[in-house]
Design a protein that fits this description.
- There is one protein chain.
- By secondary structure, this protein is mostly helical.
- It has one domain (about 5-155).
- The chain is about 75% helix and about 0% strand.
- It is built from 5 helices and no strands.
- It has helices at about 10-40, 40-50, 65-95, 100-125, 130-155.
- The protein starts with 9 loop residues before the first helix and ends in a 6-residue tail after the last helix.
- The model has no long low-confidence stretch (mean pLDDT about 90).
Length: about 160
C-alpha cells in the first residue's frame, strides 16, 4: 500500500489538521495540571502519590492517594491515552516519516503508557525509586506525541503530494 497523507483531498487534510490541533490543545493543557500536582519533578511525583503529611516544612499538605483514586487515574489515563495513540499510529503509518521513526513512534508511546502508569502503581505500593522511571517514561511519552503531531501536521499542511 503506497498511500500517503499528503495525497488526501484538501478538505480532509484541513479537517484532520484541525482535529490534531484540538487534540494537541487538550493533551498539552493537561501538562499544566501535571505541573501543578507534581511541580514536574520526582519529589512532586512522590508527594502526589504518597503524600507529604510527615513533612512539617511542606507548603501544601498532601495525603497518600487512596487505592480507589489510583485505580481511577490509571484506568482513565491508560484507556484514553491508548486510544489517542492508536489513532495517531494509524495516521503515522501513512506519513512520509522513515520506517525507523514510524516503528519507534508506533511502539514507544504504548511502552511509556504502561511504564508510567504501572510505575504509579508500584510507587503507591512503596517502591519509591520508580519515581525516576515515571519521570523518564512520561517525558518520552510527551515528546513522542509532540513529534508524531509535528510529522502528521507537516504531511497534512506543508508536504506536497507526489504525482
Amino acid at each position: 500500500m503506497n498511500f500517503q497523507l499528503s495525497s488526501l483531498p484538501r478538505l480532509l487534510k484541513i479537517s484532520l489538521s484541525i482535529f490534531l490541533f484540538a487534540l494537541a490543545f487538550g493533551y498539552f493543557s493537561s501538562f499544566d495540571l501535571l505541573k501543578q500536582t507534581t511541580d514536574l519533578n520526582s519529589q512532586g511525583v512522590e508527594e502526589n502519590v504518597l503524600g507529604n503529611e510527615m513533612d512539617e516544612s511542606a507548603n501544601e499538605l498532601r495525603f497518600k492517594m487512596s487505592e480507589r483514586e489510583l485505580h481511577g487515574i490509571i484506568h482513565s489515563h491508560v484507556i484514553s491515552l491508548s486510544l489517542i495513540f492508536v489513532f495517531l499510529q494509524i495516521l503515522l503509518y501513512f506519513s512520509s516519516a522513515s520506517s525507523f521513526f514510524k516503528a519507534f513512534l508506533m511502539v514507544e508511546p504504548i511502552i511509556s503508557i504502561i511504564t508510567t502508569f504501572g510505575g504509579l502503581w508500584m510507587l503507591w505500593l512503596g517502591h519509591v525509586w520508580v519515581k525516576y522511571l515515571i519521570m523518564v517514561s512520561g517525558t518520552l511519552m510527551h515528546l513522542s506525541l509532540a513529534l508524531i503531531l509535528f510529522i502528521l501536521l507537516y504531511d497534512l499542511l506543508i508536504r506536497k503530494a507526489k504525482s
